[in-house]
Design goal:
This protein is an alpha/beta fold and 588 residues long. It has three domains: 195 residues, Rossmann fold; 162 residues, TPP-binding domain (Rossmann fold), CATH 3.40.50.1220; 207 residues, Thiamin diphosphate (ThDP)-binding fold, Pyr/PP domains (Rossmann fold). The chain contains 22 helices and 20 strands. The strands form four sheets. A six-stranded parallel β-sheet has the order 3-2-4-5-7-6, sandwiched between helices. It has a six-stranded parallel β-sheet with strand order 11-10-9-12-13-14, sandwiched between helices. The longest helix is centred in the middle third of the chain and has 17 residues. Bound molecules: thiamine diphosphate and magnesium ion (MG). The site of thiamine diphosphate has 19 residues, from helix 16, strand 17, helix 18 and helix 20.
């Protein structure tokens, strides 16, 4: 009788290869996953089951979910929370097609995730095989290769790890021929992976000392200096150095959404987030600055309001691990190539003693501007109104969360509400989505896997939550007690407001952005999780507290005001629409 292995055409000649380190592919891969120190990986069958079976009882979570895209977001959140490359495993063909879309956000945020997908075996390649559809990962990866033979798995996977953890970190993908799982080989002399590539950043280059000295001199000579931190400051873990430099040279600090956490937002020198989803007061000060120190930033459209702020006359000093970034979007730039934490440390050393009393008038104006912004929104922040004002919700949630919580914020209004109204401590405690609606909930599940001792909280709208609602079941089944706070306004309200602003008279315009009312707490309960519905703003703190003390996934469905307009820079979003629908008065 033929065995299943023979019918599948798999190698059945186990034990023929001789040598000290003879293993088959599944064992070697399992050993490498063990060595990598990850707390979990994310998968959608069918690929690498033999490896997963090898890893039973290892304490590594093998998280089976409900779509390849959500699994990629989980690996993304896991990587960001843990500081180790995330791992996602899916089948090729349609699985790879789905996975690709989950890599877009990680590509933009510079998150190292490694995707492994199957490839059609050479014997059947281009043979109209079942599921023989190919997708090109090169647009969303820094490294993309095909492993057609087991002998190449160690060096190609090694290269993937080296690529994703060094320089500008980003995802990688390997198409792997399925049969290598069971083929045997002697792996002696096949170790291409130094331990350092299992965490990132694997290297921290120093900047040129002369450039550092010049940067400090220019910042000291400035009249209205400002520091703008991007996500690179967070990837590098540079919050202590940002704070030290700001204090030494007496410079106010702002950040993009991705850079939130670069300084304690209660610090007197912190102005809050800038960019498209921001406090308008921060943009005013950035526009006025004469010298701006950008730290680990792409200075992209969402950070610079499509390249308008800071204006081109501003002198820029730009620290980046990617030498191509400084000067890319902003002229008049002094480039500092190196790791943000190290280069800022060099600047602190070069600065020497604190410039007590420097820039006091400028700092006072910045602080007044920040206070005026809070005053302007005092009514919403303290509102007892129902449905609940999102401003009140954001402030209450920030108050209720412990300092080590990780907030994963979705795009659109969710980004703006949390970015502007949640004052959070310094550290890696806010993972910003790069614009991919639906990312936050799976990312928070992944963050909880990557940092199990810290609370992980998704902050998203109902539209965003609905994308991957099925992952409630995944979290419950895998004992991942993340928290989701869903701002439920039964609509894609960002779009509702856009439609109302431009086409309110149109027939049946509601059909273009409104949903039916849904109770996400009930759905969560049905799926085995802990569901809480909050309609009274006085109950927000209790709900968060209950979630923090629950050992099951909790979804807090908060009924929020459909009419609340978030602090986004302009109604029509980003450059993809060429600014056609933007309102110039709302640009700042
Ligand atoms: C993948 C993707 N599709 C579409 C968008 C455009 N978009 C941004 S915010 C938004 C509405 C979000 O609705 P919801 O999550 O309910 O939040 P609300 O605006 O209602 O607060 C849409 C459609 C996007 N950013 N990403
Ligand atoms: Mg909504």
């Amino acid at each position: 009788m033929t065995t299943m292995r023979e019918r599948l055409g798999l190698d059945t000649s186990e034990g023929e290869v001789q040598g000290d380190q003879v293993m088959n592919g599944q064992q070697w891969l399992a050993e490498t996953i063990r060595r990598s120190g990850i707390k979990g990986f994310f998968f959608m069958p069918t690929f690498l089951y033999p490896t997963m079976v090898e890893l039973a009882d290892e304490g590594i979570k093998r998280v089976l979910g409900h779509s390849e895209k959500a699994m990629a977001y989980m690996a993304d959140g896991c990587a960001q929370a843990s500081g180790r490359p995330g791992l996602v495993i899916t089948q090729g063909g349609p699985g790879a097609c789905n996975l690709l879309s989950g890599f877009g956000d990680a590509w933009q945020s510079g998150t190292p995730i490694i995707g492994l997908t199957t490839y059609i075996p050479t014997a059947r390649y281009r043979g109209n095989s079942y599921q023989e559809v190919y997708v090109d990962f090169s647009t969303v990866t820094k490294y993309d290769a095909e492993v057609r033979d087991l002998s190449r798995l160690p060096d190609l996977l090694g290269e993937a790890y080296r690529e994703v953890t060094t320089g500008a970190t980003r995802p990688a993908h390997l198409y792997v021929e399925g049969s290598i799982e069971t083929v045997q080989m002697d792996f002696a002399d096949k170790d291409f992976l130094d331990e350092r590539y299992f965490t990132y950043p694997a290297f921290r280059p120093r900047a040129d000392d002369e450039d550092v000295a010049q940067a400090v001199e220019e910042l000291r000579a400035a009249e209205r200096p400002i520091i703008v931190c991007g996500r690179g400051a967070i990837i590098s873990g540079a919050w202590d150095e940002v704070t030290m430099l700001a204090e030494r040279l007496q410079i106010p600090v702002t950040c993009s959404l991705g850079g939130k956490g670069s300084i304690d937002e209660h610090h007197p020198l912190s102005l809050g987030v800038e960019g498209s989803y921001r406090r308008s007061s921060t943009m005013d000060m950035l526009e006025e600055a004469d010298v701006a120190l950008f730290v680990g930033s792409h200075a992209g459209g969402a950070t610079t309001l499509l390249g308008t702020i800071p204006p081109p006359t501003t002198r820029i000093i730009h620290i980046d691990i990617d030498p191509a970034q400084p000067g890319k979007n902003m002229p008049n730039t002094l480039p500092l190539f190196g790791d943000a934490k190290v280069v800022l440390g060099q600047m602190v050393d070069a600065a020497g003693a604190e410039d007590a009393g420097a820039n006091q008038e400028w700092i006072k104006r910045c602080q007044e501007s920040r206070e005026a912004w809070w005053q302007e929104h005092e009514a919403e922040v303290t509102s007892d109104q129902t449905p609940i004002r999102p401003e009140r919700l954001a402030v209450e949630v920030a108050k209720a969360l412990p300092d080590d919580a990780i907030v994963c914020a979705d795009t659109g209004y969710a980004a703006a509400w949390s970015g502007a109204y949640m004052d959070l401590p310094a550290g890696k405690n806010y993972l910003a989505c790069e614009g991919t609606l639906g990312w936050a909930f799976p990312a928070a599940i992944g963050a909880k896997v990557g940092a199990p001792d810290r609370p992980a909280v998704a902050w998203c709208g109902d539209g965003g939550f609905m994308y991957h609602m099925a992952e409630v079941e995944t979290a419950v089944r895998n004992d991942i007690n993340a928290i989701a706070i869903v701002l439920n306004n039964h609509a894609l309200v960002f779009d509702t407001h856009l439609l109302q602003a431009f086409w309110s008279a149109s027939h049946d315009v509601d059909l273009l952005s409104e949903f039916k009312e849904t109770n996400f707490a009930k759905i969560t309960e049905e799926l085995g999780g802990n569901g809480i519905r909050v309609t009274d703003p006085a109950k927000i703190g209790d709900a968060v507290d209950q979630a923090l003390h629950n050992d099951k996934l909790t979804v807090i469905d908060v009924v929020v005001d459909h009419a609340a307009v978030a602090p986004v820079a302009f109604m029509a979003g980003q450059g993809s629409r060429g600014g056609i629908l933007s309102d110039p008065d709302k640009m700042k």
